[in-house]
Description:
Layout: H1 2-5, E1 11-13, H2 23-30, E2 35-38, H3 43-46, E3 53-54, E4 62-63, E5 71-72, H4 80-91, H5 93-113, H6 117-137, H7 146-159, H8 163-180
Parallel strand pairs: 1-2, 2-3
Antiparallel strand pairs: 4-5
Helix pairs in contact: 2-5, 4-5
Amino acid sequence: xxxxxxxxxxxxxxxxxxxxxxxxxxxxxxxxxxxxxxxxxxxxxxxxxxxxxxxxxxxxxxxxxxxxxxxxxxxxxxxxxxxxxxxxxxxxxxxxxxxxxxxxxxxxxxxxxxxxxxxxxxxxxxxxxxxxxxxxxxxxxxxxxxxxxxxxxxxxxxxxxxxxxxxxxxxxxxxxxxxxx
Length: 181
């Protein structure tokens, strides 16, 4: 991606159908490249609130052709907003720099917010629920409280950690305790 984006000053993403997230938008923004994109589908999310989401008339129908894939019918487009955006970004250096900086900051903030933690927590909840169901089916649930099940689950998870991972966890917990004081 670097080879392609290193020579680009503005990225145009004029999609006419509801794209998924639009990773190319974030990839460009991570490099401070202003992106002009369609206000459609996942591109609206991928722009991360930075200006230049422009209207398009999306593809709504396809024509069937014998022995070929259906062909999209491209609706007429108003390209004036696109021309205006390109002209402003190419002629107003201060504006270009501001959008470049906003793009860089928003994309890096987004990147730094990504975490596997919600996924891991979800898997742990599913595992705990499965364990509770197994205990319920075997008649053991009535003997155990919810807190006991959570404690048992955490103890099992702790036993799966390596010595190094346990030491790191202990250090982080001690640091967190010191921060609260």
